[in-house]
Design brief:
alpha+beta; OB fold (Dihydrolipoamide Acetyltransferase, E2P); 2 domains; five-stranded antiparallel β-sheet; 20 strands; binds adenosine-5'-diphosphate; binds magnesium ion
Length: 373
Amino acid sequence: MGQLKLASVTKNFGTAKVIKPTDLSIEEGEFAVFVGPSGCGKSTMLRMIAGLEEITSGSIEIDGKRINDLPPVKRGISMVFQSYALYPHMTVYENIAFPLRVARMPKDEVDRLVLKAADVLKLRERLDHKPGALSGGQRQRVAIGRAIVREPQIFLFDEPLSNLDAALRAEMRVELSRLHSKLGNTMIYVTHDQVEAMTMADKIVVLRDGRIEQVGSPLELFHKPKNRFVAGFIGTPNMNFLPVRCTGTGEGGVTVALPNGGGATIPVPPAGAQAGQDLVLGIRPDDLRPAGDTGGLRFLADVVERLGNQAVIYGNCEGDATAQICMIADGAIDIRPGQALDIGFDPAKAHLFTAEGDAFDRQVDLRALAALA
Ligand code: ADP
Ligand code: MG
């Protein structure tokens, strides 16, 4: 139970087409994360699933049953919002019990469900407190408790950790992953933070401008992004994108001229590439190395962040200020702002895109990646 299917779902607000025709399946027990920049339509998608927003066209099914016209309470879902929306004058117990009281559930049953949720969320000691006496993380757990007691088929979360500080957010991510393995329900989680998507999701749905750009496991999206948008959105720090020119193609892949003189052959099927074409080379910051390897770049550093075991170095290709580079290096690397350094990369780890942003197909063993999930 808890399988969700969207077919050709759209949403217009007046003349604004906020969700373009969307098809999506989320399997029973899956932790799906909708991720994308602010305004791309994540909350609208979630609110349509919840029934808080009418869909303009298409259909939404839960467990094979069309629910387009069902009111929110009849859909078997619970939603947790960014603003915890707790009642300040009620205790933690009463806040968690609230939806059960509204449903006129017998007192014993309310008690059993509230205590069960409080155990799962480590709130047993806090049941008599008012929300004002709780930390942000505890308040968010109360809001989650209120969702749990309804024993929904599907949990919907809309940026539930955005109001928490960085340390607490990291802690709550782990707690939510644990909660998911404990409850086993389908969860759909919306965030603009790709780290939350990467760390918690079984399936990531990347949205841009009301459209799904790509659906896949975190590692699939990381290693085989379909386009430059997904490549730039997933992974931290962001992938570097360098303007390159194709100088030839062959069995070994696509050979490109790098911004300052060197060249590299990227091992991708060269279909569609031809000499003279402008392309975009994508290299992740931790795939750049001082000298060595192949594919030479001359890197002029301007900011060096030393984090201890790592240094994050920002700059550009020497002589080309438009070719910005971020590189992650050993914490003890000998470099200062204003200095240049020869760097290289393993072409097998590089990504290649057309000028329009479509990715050349990388040869990645997806089955090996799936085995890690
Ligand atoms: P996200 O959650 O990804 O930040 P939203 O789903 O909230 O994005 O919004 C998507 C787009 O729809 C935005 O451009 C927003 O301005 C617009 N929008 C959302 N709700 C309404 C509404 N009730 N009326 C008109 N436009 C809306
Ligand atoms: Mg939103």
